[in-house]
Amino acid sequence: xxxxxxxxxxxxxxxxxxxxxxxxxxxxxxxxxxxxxxxxxxxxxxxxxxxxxxxxxxxxxxxxxxxxxxxxxxxxxxxxxxxxxxxxxxxxxxxxxxxxxxxxxxxxxxxxxxxxxxxxxxxxxxxxxxxxxxxxxxxxxxxxxxxxxxxxxxxxxxxxxxxxxxxxxxxxxxxxxxxxxxxxxxxxxxxxxxxxxxxxxxxxxxxxxxxxxxxxxxxxxxxxxxxxxxxxxxxxxxxxxxxxxxxxxxxxxxxxxxxxxxxxxxxxxxxxxxxxxxxxxxxxxxxxxxxxxxxxxxxxxxxxxxxxxxxxxxxxxxxxxxxxxxxxxxxxxxxxxxxxxxxxxxxxx
Length: 349
Known about the structure:
Layout: E1 2-6, H1 12-25, E2 30-35, E3 38-44, H2 56-60, E4 65-69, E5 88-91, E6 99-102, E7 108-112, H3 119-131, E8 136-138, H4 156-169, E9 172-176, H5 183-187, E10 192-195, H6 203-210, E11 216-219, H7 226-238, E12 244-248, H8 266-273, E13 278-280, H9 282-286, H10 289-301, E14 306-310, H11 328-348
Parallel strand pairs: 7-8, 7-14, 8-9, 9-10, 10-11, 11-12, 12-13, 13-14
Antiparallel strand pairs: 1-3, 1-4, 2-3, 5-6
Helix pairs in contact: 3-4, 6-7, 10-11
């Protein structure tokens, strides 16, 4: 794929003129990414003309064209070919400031129960998380489940509970959105909109998420290859939302000893190919409480930008995923290890 990059800071009128000139050389060219003072990218797809038949110099000599990138991958906007530096995603704001994920920052831990079960449960966990210095809380109000008879979440009531806990404990919330028509409702409460494994291929919803500004946490599909994973992220990026966070959560293999197979290969591989931050979810990746801590440390050793961990103060009473949820006490021990593992990396930097 050939990409023509326009200069930063162009006015809309200047962009339109530059794109028009590019389209004269390549009738199939179209804008694939622009926003604010970021460069505008134009994907060149000649109709009836071999791309190689138009020399790159024909584009670079045009006014307001910065350069031409040949052989760009299909996930162009998420690739290091177009953006060599790591992306840092700022979550929330307010008096305490944003939590920044990626961009070489220390690893971030997002923790909380699988599902919102009620206010008391959420308040107990939030209080413990806040005391441990965890500022991002995860919980599901809408729960996609394999069985139609399993607990499907408290839905709107769950969002209302999350909003109350958010106010009272100063947490920033991460929760799943399951359909395009729920985005606005969820975004009123959530600081990060999560796309679950089952919905990684829900392209229409990904496009909608690209048209809104809040960060999107995209979980890898349980049977998706890395290429498909990055192309799913491209749907959000192409809509104009550059705040995308990837998350490895395990894939389906022949192994049955664990819930999934946590594919840590994808972490350094993504780091080589993409500038997007990537988290690891060892809870879903293993499905077993004793494996969460060691696989968390393994994820950080691979270069993950943070962890997504299920934490419940009474996992034996959890309505879902109790067997893979660690307790706040176990989280405290893990956080000590995480901070110890991060310190050498900061010292080396």
